[in-house]
């Protein structure tokens, strides 16, 4: 199958979103590799880290967000090279993952769920639904992702991935957008904190 790919700018000037006309993952599952060591499960991400300017790789349903480490390198010279590599790799049937990330994420969530009180569990579920239905689609548009990590005593902890990590506007989005939405819809929520934000 012929693969077409286009590049889309993200709010993070160091990140570029490469959108494919086919799926790499099931909807709602994504993986974020902040470095080569973290990418052990993805031969595709490992190959991308061979480009000396690639500092982070985020893979979602039908796009790959690449964050560069060299601000002086312009995207105009990098996009054709990266697009050509991705097109060739996917068309050749190169392996994206060695273990299905959906199965991996379910196991990790079960391990970190702990034993919240029933009330905290119900609040957490409301927060997860809001993030999945309202926040995640917008964040994905920008080449990133947000995942729920925990809810405890009024504090929601989320993970920001892809272009959101290290994005200058991520903290503002988190506090003025996401926190306000959750406080309005779920009165028990007092604040939202993020992991994965490099400020």
UniProtKB/TrEMBL annotation:
Taxonomic superkingdom: Bacteria
Database matches in InterPro entries: FSCA_dom_sf (IPR034904), Nfu/NifU_N (IPR014824), Nfu/NifU_N_sf (IPR036498), NFU1-like (IPR035433), NIF_FeS_clus_asmbl_NifU_C (IPR001075)
Residue ranges occupied by any Scaffold protein Nfu/NifU N-terminal domain in the UniProt entry: 5-93
Gene3D superfamilies for the chain: Fe-S cluster assembly (FSCA), Scaffold protein Nfu/NifU, N-terminal domain
GO terms of biological process kind: iron-sulfur cluster assembly
UniProt xrefs under Pfam families: Nfu_N (PF08712), NifU (PF01106)
GO molecular function annotation: iron ion binding; iron-sulfur cluster binding
Coiled coil: none
Classification via PANTHER family: IRON-SULFUR CLUSTER SCAFFOLD PROTEIN NFU-RELATED, NFU1 IRON-SULFUR CLUSTER SCAFFOLD HOMOLOG, MITOCHONDRIAL
Recorded family membership: Belongs to the NifU family.
Name of the protein this chain belongs to: NifU family protein
């Amino acid at each position: 199958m012929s693969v077409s790919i286009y590049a889309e700018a993200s709010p993070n000037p160091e990140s570029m979103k490469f959108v494919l006309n086919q799926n790499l993952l099931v909807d709602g599952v994504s993986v974020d590799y902040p470095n080569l060591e973290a990418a052990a499960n993805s031969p595709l991400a490992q190959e991308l880290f061979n480009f000396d300017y690639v500092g982070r790789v985020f893979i979602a349903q039908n796009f790959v967000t690449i964050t560069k480490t060299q601000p002086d390198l312009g995207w105009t010279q990098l996009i054709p090279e990266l697009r050509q590599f991705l097109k060739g790799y996917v068309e050749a049937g190169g392996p994206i993952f060695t273990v299905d990330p959906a199965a991996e994420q379910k196991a990790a969530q079960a391990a970190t769920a702990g034993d919240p009180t029933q009330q905290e569990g119900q609040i957490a579920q409301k927060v997860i639904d809001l993030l999945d239905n309202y926040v995640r689609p917008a964040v994905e548009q920008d080449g990133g992702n947000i995942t729920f990590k925990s809810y405890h005593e009024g504090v929601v902890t989320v993970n920001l991935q892809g272009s959101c990590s290290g994005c200058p506007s991520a903290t503002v989005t988190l506090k003025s957008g996401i926190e306000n939405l959750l406080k309005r819809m779920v009165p028990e929520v007092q604040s939202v904190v993020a992991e994965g934000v490099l400020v």
